[in-house]
Amino acid sequence: MLIYEKGKRMLPIGPLMIEHRLIERVVKLMESECLRCKTERKADPLFIDAVVDFFRTYADRTHHGKEEDILFRKLAEKELSPEHEKTMNELIEEHKIGRKTVGELHDAKERYVKGESGAVDDIVACLDKLTAFYPAHIETEDEHFFLPAMDYFTAEEQAEMLRESEEFDANMIHAKYDGVVAELEAESR
Ligand SMILES: [Fe+2]
Ligand SMILES: [Fe+2]
Q1: 41 CA to centre of ligand 1 in angstroms
Q2: Interval between CA 7 and ligand 1 midpoint (Å)
Q3: pLDDT per residue as tens digits for the range 23-41
Q4: What does the DSSP assignment read for 42-105?
Q5: Global pTM exceeds 0.70
Q6: How many Å lie between the centroid of ligand 2 and the Cα of residue 108?
Q7: Rg of the chain's alpha carbons, rounded to an integer?
Q8: Residue 13, beta-bridge partner list
Q9: Could you tell me which CATH number the domain at 13-174 has?
Q10: How far is the CA of 69 from the centre of ligand 2 (A)?
Q11: Which of 63, 107, 179, 183 is the most exposed place for a label (fewest CB within 10 A)?
Protein backbone atom coordinates (compact mmCIF):
# COMPACT_ATOMS: atom_id res chain seq x y z
CA MET A 1 0.00 0.00 0.00
CA LEU A 2 1.78 3.15 -1.22
CA ILE A 3 0.59 5.77 1.23
CA TYR A 4 3.87 7.48 2.01
CA GLU A 5 5.54 9.81 -0.43
CA LYS A 6 8.97 8.30 -1.09
CA GLY A 7 9.30 6.90 2.44
CA LYS A 8 8.57 10.23 4.15
CA ARG A 9 5.29 11.96 4.85
CA MET A 10 1.96 10.17 4.83
CA LEU A 11 -0.12 11.20 1.84
CA PRO A 12 -3.67 12.47 2.56
CA ILE A 13 -4.97 9.31 0.88
CA GLY A 14 -3.11 7.24 3.54
CA PRO A 15 -5.85 7.36 6.19
CA LEU A 16 -8.48 6.67 3.51
CA MET A 17 -6.65 3.54 2.34
CA ILE A 18 -6.21 2.34 5.92
CA GLU A 19 -9.96 2.86 6.47
CA HIS A 20 -10.65 0.74 3.36
CA ARG A 21 -9.01 -2.21 5.12
CA LEU A 22 -11.47 -1.98 8.05
CA ILE A 23 -14.44 -1.68 5.66
CA GLU A 24 -13.19 -4.83 3.89
CA ARG A 25 -13.14 -6.74 7.18
CA VAL A 26 -16.79 -5.80 7.80
CA VAL A 27 -17.69 -6.77 4.22
CA LYS A 28 -16.17 -10.23 4.86
CA LEU A 29 -18.36 -10.64 7.97
CA MET A 30 -21.38 -9.53 5.93
CA GLU A 31 -20.64 -12.14 3.27
CA SER A 32 -20.66 -14.95 5.87
CA GLU A 33 -23.80 -13.57 7.51
CA CYS A 34 -25.52 -13.30 4.13
CA LEU A 35 -24.71 -16.93 3.35
CA ARG A 36 -26.06 -18.00 6.76
CA CYS A 37 -29.26 -15.95 6.20
CA LYS A 38 -29.78 -17.64 2.85
CA THR A 39 -29.43 -21.19 4.22
CA GLU A 40 -31.19 -20.74 7.55
CA ARG A 41 -33.79 -18.18 6.35
CA LYS A 42 -33.15 -16.28 9.58
CA ALA A 43 -31.53 -12.89 10.06
CA ASP A 44 -29.59 -11.59 13.05
CA PRO A 45 -31.06 -8.15 13.88
CA LEU A 46 -28.20 -7.27 16.25
CA PHE A 47 -25.63 -7.96 13.53
CA ILE A 48 -27.60 -5.80 11.09
CA ASP A 49 -27.81 -2.99 13.68
CA ALA A 50 -24.01 -3.12 14.11
CA VAL A 51 -23.47 -3.14 10.35
CA VAL A 52 -25.86 -0.23 9.79
CA ASP A 53 -24.13 1.80 12.51
CA PHE A 54 -20.71 0.95 11.07
CA PHE A 55 -21.71 2.01 7.57
CA ARG A 56 -23.51 5.15 8.65
CA THR A 57 -20.96 6.40 11.17
CA TYR A 58 -17.68 5.04 9.88
CA ALA A 59 -17.97 4.17 6.17
CA ASP A 60 -20.28 7.05 5.25
CA ARG A 61 -19.91 9.98 7.65
CA THR A 62 -16.25 9.46 8.54
CA HIS A 63 -14.79 7.85 5.43
CA HIS A 64 -16.95 9.08 2.55
CA GLY A 65 -17.15 12.34 4.48
CA LYS A 66 -13.40 12.86 4.18
CA GLU A 67 -13.41 11.75 0.55
CA GLU A 68 -16.23 14.09 -0.45
CA ASP A 69 -15.63 17.07 1.84
CA ILE A 70 -11.84 17.18 1.54
CA LEU A 71 -10.32 15.19 -1.34
CA PHE A 72 -13.10 15.42 -3.95
CA ARG A 73 -13.94 19.03 -2.98
CA LYS A 74 -10.33 20.08 -3.51
CA LEU A 75 -10.06 18.04 -6.71
CA ALA A 76 -13.14 19.82 -8.05
CA GLU A 77 -11.16 23.07 -7.86
CA LYS A 78 -8.53 21.61 -10.21
CA GLU A 79 -8.54 21.14 -13.96
CA LEU A 80 -9.14 17.38 -13.97
CA SER A 81 -8.59 15.11 -16.95
CA PRO A 82 -11.95 13.96 -18.43
CA GLU A 83 -11.17 10.42 -17.22
CA HIS A 84 -10.48 11.49 -13.63
CA GLU A 85 -13.55 13.74 -13.59
CA LYS A 86 -15.70 10.86 -14.81
CA THR A 87 -14.29 8.48 -12.18
CA MET A 88 -14.79 11.01 -9.38
CA ASN A 89 -18.43 11.57 -10.39
CA GLU A 90 -19.00 7.81 -10.51
CA LEU A 91 -17.48 7.41 -7.03
CA ILE A 92 -19.81 10.13 -5.68
CA GLU A 93 -22.79 8.37 -7.27
CA GLU A 94 -21.68 5.07 -5.72
CA HIS A 95 -21.56 6.70 -2.28
CA LYS A 96 -25.23 7.64 -2.80
CA ILE A 97 -26.08 4.03 -3.75
CA GLY A 98 -24.24 2.79 -0.63
CA ARG A 99 -26.15 5.25 1.57
CA LYS A 100 -29.50 4.24 0.05
CA THR A 101 -28.80 0.50 0.36
CA VAL A 102 -27.79 0.85 4.02
CA GLY A 103 -31.11 2.69 4.59
CA GLU A 104 -32.95 -0.16 2.87
CA LEU A 105 -31.07 -2.72 5.01
CA HIS A 106 -32.15 -0.86 8.15
CA ASP A 107 -35.79 -0.79 6.96
CA ALA A 108 -35.73 -4.49 6.06
CA LYS A 109 -34.38 -5.32 9.53
CA GLU A 110 -37.19 -3.29 11.14
CA ARG A 111 -39.76 -5.20 9.08
CA TYR A 112 -38.03 -8.50 9.95
CA VAL A 113 -38.26 -7.74 13.67
CA LYS A 114 -42.00 -7.05 13.23
CA GLY A 115 -42.32 -10.52 11.69
CA GLU A 116 -42.99 -9.46 8.12
CA SER A 117 -42.60 -12.38 5.73
CA GLY A 118 -40.20 -11.64 2.91
CA ALA A 119 -38.14 -9.22 4.99
CA VAL A 120 -35.34 -11.79 5.25
CA ASP A 121 -35.12 -11.81 1.43
CA ASP A 122 -34.79 -8.02 1.43
CA ILE A 123 -32.01 -8.27 4.05
CA VAL A 124 -30.19 -10.82 1.89
CA ALA A 125 -30.64 -8.62 -1.21
CA CYS A 126 -29.16 -5.59 0.61
CA LEU A 127 -26.24 -7.62 1.99
CA ASP A 128 -25.58 -9.07 -1.47
CA LYS A 129 -25.65 -5.60 -3.00
CA LEU A 130 -23.33 -4.04 -0.41
CA THR A 131 -20.82 -6.91 -0.45
CA ALA A 132 -20.63 -6.79 -4.25
CA PHE A 133 -20.49 -3.00 -4.45
CA TYR A 134 -17.95 -2.02 -1.78
CA PRO A 135 -14.93 -4.14 -2.85
CA ALA A 136 -15.28 -2.82 -6.42
CA HIS A 137 -15.64 0.77 -5.19
CA ILE A 138 -12.57 0.41 -2.96
CA GLU A 139 -10.55 -1.16 -5.78
CA THR A 140 -11.31 1.77 -8.09
CA GLU A 141 -10.16 4.22 -5.43
CA ASP A 142 -7.07 2.27 -4.30
CA GLU A 143 -5.86 1.07 -7.67
CA HIS A 144 -7.02 3.65 -10.17
CA PHE A 145 -7.87 6.97 -8.59
CA PHE A 146 -6.23 7.99 -5.32
CA LEU A 147 -2.58 7.95 -6.38
CA PRO A 148 -3.09 9.72 -9.73
CA ALA A 149 -5.30 12.24 -7.88
CA MET A 150 -2.30 13.22 -5.71
CA ASP A 151 -0.51 14.57 -8.79
CA TYR A 152 -2.95 17.51 -8.92
CA PHE A 153 -1.67 18.81 -5.56
CA THR A 154 1.51 20.42 -4.34
CA ALA A 155 3.26 19.01 -1.24
CA GLU A 156 1.81 21.92 0.79
CA GLU A 157 -1.72 21.24 -0.44
CA GLN A 158 -1.31 17.55 0.43
CA ALA A 159 -0.07 18.41 3.92
CA GLU A 160 -3.05 20.74 4.41
CA MET A 161 -5.46 17.99 3.33
CA LEU A 162 -3.91 15.58 5.82
CA ARG A 163 -4.31 18.20 8.57
CA GLU A 164 -7.97 18.76 7.59
CA SER A 165 -8.54 14.99 7.64
CA GLU A 166 -7.22 14.75 11.19
CA GLU A 167 -9.48 17.60 12.27
CA PHE A 168 -12.44 15.95 10.51
CA ASP A 169 -11.82 12.70 12.41
CA ALA A 170 -11.36 14.49 15.73
CA ASN A 171 -14.79 16.10 15.36
CA MET A 172 -16.53 12.89 14.38
CA ILE A 173 -16.69 11.19 17.78
CA HIS A 174 -18.40 14.30 19.21
CA ALA A 175 -20.86 14.51 16.32
CA LYS A 176 -21.65 10.80 16.70
CA TYR A 177 -22.45 10.99 20.41
CA ASP A 178 -24.28 14.31 20.13
CA GLY A 179 -26.56 12.39 17.78
CA VAL A 180 -26.86 9.37 20.09
CA VAL A 181 -27.84 11.58 23.06
CA ALA A 182 -30.30 13.59 20.96
CA GLU A 183 -31.93 10.32 19.85
CA LEU A 184 -32.16 9.03 23.43
CA GLU A 185 -33.72 12.33 24.52
CA ALA A 186 -36.26 12.16 21.71
CA GLU A 187 -37.19 8.57 22.69
CA SER A 188 -37.60 9.52 26.37
CA ARG A 189 -40.16 12.25 25.60
FE1 LIG B 1 -15.46 6.22 -1.80
FE1 LIG C 1 -13.16 5.02 0.01
Answers
A1: 32
A2: 25
A3: 999 999 999 999 999 999 9
A4: ---HHHHHHHHHIIIIIIIIIIIHHIIIIIIHHHTTS---HHHHHHHHHHHHHHHHHHHHHHHH
A5: yes
A6: 25
A7: 18
A8: none
A9: 1.20.120.520
A10: 12
A11: 183
